[in-house]
Recover the amino acids of this structure.
């Protein structure tokens, strides 16, 4: 019984990882279509991961991608903890790559039941 639960959890984790990777790729293409240049995908810092980092004009955009079965669940998945982790990872990035650009936090919500949604300026910089 314990082994079956472990295997099932592993299978769900792998499926979630694939769905997340697909959502990030789809989000990057949508942003490119909207005129953004993608600088980094899955930027890792000691303080957390940033799904996408893009630029458009004079704005540097840090994008959190959420893939869930519905857009409502996707927006609720951006918890306070995740917001704080994202802010810390962005601070680390900006220390490593200083910029004079404006900084913005966006979200891309991806669901199999609706078109992806791009939410701009979800957090204060």
């Amino acid at each position: 019984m314990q082994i079956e639960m472990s295997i099932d959890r592993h299978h769900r984790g792998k499926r979630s990882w694939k769905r997340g990777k697909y959502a990030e790729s789809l989000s990057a293409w949508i942003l490119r279509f909207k005129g953004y240049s993608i600088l980094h995908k899955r930027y890792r810092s000691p303080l957390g991961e940033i799904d996408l980092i893009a630029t458009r004009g004079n704005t540097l955009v840090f994008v959190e991608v959420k893939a869930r079965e519905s857009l409502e669940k996707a927006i609720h998945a951006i918890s306070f903890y995740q917001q704080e982790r994202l802010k810390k990872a962005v601070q680390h990035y900006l220390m490593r790559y200083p910029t004079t650009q404006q900084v913005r936090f966006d979200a891309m919500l991806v669901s199999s039941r609706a078109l992806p949604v791009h939410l701009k300026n979800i957090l204060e910089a």
Remarks:
- The CA atoms of residues 68 and 74 lie 5 Å apart.
